[in-house]
Amino acid sequence: MSETIKNRYEFVLLFDVENGNPNGDPDAGNMPRIDAETGLGLVTDVCLKRKVRNYVDVVKGQSEGFDIYVRESAVLNLQHEKAYKELGIEPNRKEKKLPKEANKVQKLMDFMCKNFFDIRTFGAVMTTEVNCGQIRGPVQFGFARSIDPIVQQEVTITRMAVTSEKDAEKKDREMGRKHIVPYALYRAEGFVSAHLATKTYFSEEDLSLLWDALQNMFDHDRSAARGKMASRKLIIFKHKDALGNAPAHKLFEAVNVETKDASKPPRAFSDYSVSVNRDLIPDSVTLTEL
User: Fold this and answer.
1) Beta carbons within 10 angstroms of residue 212's beta carbon
2) Per-residue model confidence (pLDDT) at position 61
3) DSSP secondary structure code for residue 4 in this structure
4) pLDDT tens digits for range 197-229
5) In what helix (H) or strand (E) does residue 113 lie, and over which residues does it extend?
6) Which of 60, 198, 232, 242 could form an SS bridge with 66, CB 3.0 to 4.6 Å?
7) What is the spatial distance between Cα 290 and Cα 235, in angstroms, rounded to a whole number?
8) Considering only CA atoms, which of 221, 217, 214, 203 is closest in space to residue 65?
9) Residue 181 to residues 14, 148, 207, 261: CA-CA distances in angstroms?
10) Secondary structure (DSSP) of 176-224
11) How far lies 153's CA from each of 95, 106, 180, 224, in Å?
12) What angle do helix axes 204-216 and 45-60 make, rounded to 10 degrees?
């Protein structure tokens, strides 16, 4: 692995959806998530991390050091057992406790970080029956929020087939519904801590892979439910050192996204203007737009 990162970063990701559901809410019949007070659409940090994980899994194919810890249908205890078996330690399943020796605890966590990309990136709570401790990751996302209020549309769909022979006696098709957002541009903000990176071995190679994932993850996450989604712009702030040279919120405020014509609802990325006020960015912070 390459050396761990030495600089602090913040980033802004703009992505959009057209005729799809970017993140369904199971508490609302899987309708697109929404801020009830403002009408703005929401996409959770967990949803975005899932897409990053899936992209890395496609690109790296479980190669050494790039396995995915939280994958579909994974049994987490079995993932933890890999660390115990590698180190020749018997897990305390009954009490769900870590080994008493501090060096063994550190070796377990080191194994999980070095072998699983998403653990050394996002961290993990591994205090299950096979306890591997708790790791705080250097990369964190906030919820993505749409630039304008969204409209949750319910579209009726039909299927030219029925489920059973009994149904065929009564009807020749099935009716269903899907929930979509006609169009929305979302903004997500994120953070990368160099101090936490030293504890999880998050490297320059991992960081480069993260930037690739944020730009390309929607191209490998197609489904009828999600419609057409795309990463539109990734703005990265690189600080001169690990401590940082400007407050994150000040850097985020330098990125402005505005609707060009407020008299009509936006229906494409071209309906927005994106600008960065470079006067708000100190010389000790490097700006990269991808």
Assistant:
1) 16
2) 87
3) B
4) 999 999 999 999 999 999 999 999 999 899 999
5) helix 102-115
6) 60
7) 6
8) 203
9) 16, 12, 32, 19
10) EEEEEEEEEEEEEEEEE-HHHHHHHT-BHHHHHHHHHHHHHGGGG---T
11) 49, 50, 5, 15
12) 110
Strand-pairing partners, residue 116, are 67
Count of Cβ atoms closer than 10 Å to residue 172 Cβ: 9
3-state DSSP: the chain helix, strand, coil percent, rounded to 5? 30, 35, 35
270: its two tokens: 């071209």
* pLDDT at position 192: 98
**Beta partners for 25?**
31
Locate 71 and state its tokens: 């994958």
Using the 8-state DSSP alphabet, how is residue 280 labeled? G
Locate 6 and state its tokens.
Answer: 């030495």
The one-character DSSP state at 5 is P
Domain residue ranges of the chain, discontinuous segments joined by + = 9-289
Task: Tell me how far apart the alpha carbons of residues 102 and 188 are, in angstroms, rounded to a whole number.
Answer: 38
Structure-token pair, residue 141:
């996302």
- Whether residue 5 contacts residue 203, with contact meaning beta carbons closer than 8 Å, is answered with yes
For residue 122, give both structure tokens.
């996002």
Indicate the pTM of the whole model. 0.93
CA nearest to 229, candidates 169, 168, 186: 186
Tokens (6 digits) for 21: 């559901």
DSSP sequence for 7-59:
S-EEEEEEEEEEEE-SSEEGGGTTEEPB-TTT-EEEE-HHHHHHHHHHHHHHH
- Spans of the chain below 50 pLDDT: none
